[in-house]
Amino acid sequence: MGVIVGPRVLDAGFSLLSVLLAPVPVAAGFPSPAQDYFDGRIDLNEHLIKDVTSTFVVRVTGQSMEGAGISDGDELIVNRALEPKDGSIVVAVLDGELTIKRLRVTKSGVVLQADNPKFPDIRVGALSELTIWGVATTCLHHI
Q1: pTM
Q2: Which of 20, 85, 102, 138 has CA 20 to 30 A from 37's CA?
Q3: Which residues are catalytic?
Q4: Going edge to edge, which strands form the sheet with 122-123?
Q5: Per-residue pLDDT tens for 58-75?
Q6: SS3 141
Protein backbone atom coordinates (compact mmCIF):
# COMPACT_ATOMS: atom_id res chain seq x y z
CA MET A 1 0.00 0.00 0.00
CA GLY A 2 1.31 3.45 -0.83
CA VAL A 3 0.65 7.02 0.19
CA ILE A 4 -0.60 9.44 -2.45
CA VAL A 5 1.32 12.72 -2.47
CA GLY A 6 0.18 15.00 -5.25
CA PRO A 7 0.45 12.99 -8.44
CA ARG A 8 3.00 10.54 -6.99
CA VAL A 9 2.44 7.40 -4.95
CA LEU A 10 5.14 6.65 -2.40
CA ASP A 11 5.89 3.19 -1.03
CA ALA A 12 4.62 2.50 2.48
CA GLY A 13 7.36 3.19 5.01
CA PHE A 14 8.90 5.97 2.90
CA SER A 15 9.58 8.96 5.11
CA LEU A 16 8.40 12.29 3.78
CA LEU A 17 9.80 14.17 6.76
CA SER A 18 13.27 12.98 7.63
CA VAL A 19 15.69 15.68 8.79
CA LEU A 20 19.01 15.89 10.60
CA LEU A 21 18.84 15.87 14.39
CA ALA A 22 21.16 17.99 16.54
CA PRO A 23 22.90 15.83 19.16
CA VAL A 24 22.11 18.17 22.08
CA PRO A 25 19.21 20.43 23.03
CA VAL A 26 19.75 24.09 22.14
CA ALA A 27 19.23 26.61 24.94
CA ALA A 28 16.60 29.28 24.38
CA GLY A 29 17.86 31.21 27.43
CA PHE A 30 21.56 31.62 28.05
CA PRO A 31 23.87 30.26 25.35
CA SER A 32 25.61 26.94 25.86
CA PRO A 33 28.69 25.53 24.13
CA ALA A 34 27.61 24.63 20.59
CA GLN A 35 28.06 21.29 18.86
CA ASP A 36 29.03 21.68 15.23
CA TYR A 37 27.82 18.31 13.97
CA PHE A 38 24.52 16.48 13.69
CA ASP A 39 23.79 13.08 15.15
CA GLY A 40 21.70 11.13 12.67
CA ARG A 41 18.19 11.78 11.47
CA ILE A 42 14.81 12.15 13.11
CA ASP A 43 11.65 10.99 11.34
CA LEU A 44 9.09 13.76 11.87
CA ASN A 45 6.33 11.39 10.79
CA GLU A 46 6.88 9.42 14.02
CA HIS A 47 6.50 12.59 16.10
CA LEU A 48 3.76 14.41 14.18
CA ILE A 49 1.57 11.78 12.53
CA LYS A 50 -0.13 9.04 14.53
CA ASP A 51 -2.32 7.64 11.74
CA VAL A 52 -1.20 8.31 8.16
CA THR A 53 -4.55 7.20 6.71
CA SER A 54 -6.54 9.85 8.59
CA THR A 55 -4.03 12.70 8.89
CA PHE A 56 -3.99 15.73 6.63
CA VAL A 57 -2.25 19.09 6.47
CA VAL A 58 -4.37 22.21 6.01
CA ARG A 59 -3.13 25.75 5.41
CA VAL A 60 -4.62 28.47 7.61
CA THR A 61 -5.89 31.77 6.29
CA GLY A 62 -6.94 34.60 8.56
CA GLN A 63 -6.17 35.73 12.10
CA SER A 64 -9.11 34.40 14.14
CA MET A 65 -6.96 31.79 15.94
CA GLU A 66 -3.91 33.92 16.78
CA GLY A 67 -4.55 33.56 20.52
CA ALA A 68 -3.97 29.83 20.13
CA GLY A 69 -0.65 30.47 18.36
CA ILE A 70 -2.11 29.78 14.90
CA SER A 71 -1.30 32.48 12.35
CA ASP A 72 -2.21 33.24 8.77
CA GLY A 73 -0.15 30.98 6.48
CA ASP A 74 0.58 28.32 9.11
CA GLU A 75 -0.14 24.67 8.40
CA LEU A 76 -2.11 22.48 10.79
CA ILE A 77 -1.74 18.74 11.08
CA VAL A 78 -5.30 17.48 11.37
CA ASN A 79 -6.36 14.00 12.44
CA ARG A 80 -9.82 12.96 11.24
CA ALA A 81 -9.87 9.85 13.45
CA LEU A 82 -9.69 11.74 16.76
CA GLU A 83 -12.86 12.34 18.74
CA PRO A 84 -13.44 16.09 19.10
CA LYS A 85 -13.87 17.28 22.69
CA ASP A 86 -14.80 20.53 24.34
CA GLY A 87 -11.75 22.77 23.91
CA SER A 88 -10.34 20.97 20.83
CA ILE A 89 -9.20 23.07 17.91
CA VAL A 90 -11.13 21.68 14.99
CA VAL A 91 -11.63 22.02 11.28
CA ALA A 92 -15.40 22.39 11.04
CA VAL A 93 -17.81 22.54 8.16
CA LEU A 94 -20.67 24.83 9.12
CA ASP A 95 -23.44 25.12 6.54
CA GLY A 96 -20.99 24.13 3.80
CA GLU A 97 -18.22 26.55 4.84
CA LEU A 98 -14.87 25.43 6.28
CA THR A 99 -13.50 27.13 9.38
CA ILE A 100 -10.87 26.51 12.05
CA LYS A 101 -12.09 27.26 15.55
CA ARG A 102 -12.04 26.01 19.13
CA LEU A 103 -14.98 23.71 19.80
CA ARG A 104 -17.03 24.61 22.87
CA VAL A 105 -19.89 22.41 24.00
CA THR A 106 -22.07 24.29 26.47
CA LYS A 107 -25.42 23.69 28.13
CA SER A 108 -26.96 26.16 25.71
CA GLY A 109 -25.43 24.53 22.61
CA VAL A 110 -22.32 24.31 20.46
CA VAL A 111 -20.04 27.30 19.91
CA LEU A 112 -17.18 27.62 17.46
CA GLN A 113 -14.90 29.97 19.36
CA ALA A 114 -12.36 32.31 17.83
CA ASP A 115 -9.11 32.73 19.80
CA ASN A 116 -8.85 36.40 18.88
CA PRO A 117 -11.11 39.00 20.55
CA LYS A 118 -11.45 40.86 17.22
CA PHE A 119 -13.53 37.96 15.86
CA PRO A 120 -16.96 36.89 17.13
CA ASP A 121 -17.71 33.38 18.31
CA ILE A 122 -20.10 31.42 16.14
CA ARG A 123 -23.10 29.95 17.94
CA VAL A 124 -24.30 26.94 15.98
CA GLY A 125 -28.03 27.34 15.47
CA ALA A 126 -30.56 24.51 15.66
CA LEU A 127 -31.12 24.68 11.89
CA SER A 128 -27.41 24.80 11.03
CA GLU A 129 -25.53 21.83 9.66
CA LEU A 130 -22.24 21.23 11.49
CA THR A 131 -19.66 18.56 10.71
CA ILE A 132 -16.37 18.34 12.60
CA TRP A 133 -13.99 17.40 9.80
CA GLY A 134 -10.98 16.78 12.05
CA VAL A 135 -9.04 17.73 15.16
CA ALA A 136 -5.87 19.82 14.88
CA THR A 137 -2.94 18.17 16.64
CA THR A 138 0.03 20.35 15.65
CA CYS A 139 0.61 23.80 14.21
CA LEU A 140 3.58 24.27 11.90
CA HIS A 141 4.15 27.94 12.66
CA HIS A 142 6.24 30.05 10.33
CA ILE A 143 8.69 32.47 11.95
Answers
A1: 0.73
A2: 138
A3: 64, 101
A4: 55-59, 75-79, 130-140, 89-94, 97-106, 109-113, 122-123
A5: 999 999 999 999 999 999
A6: coil
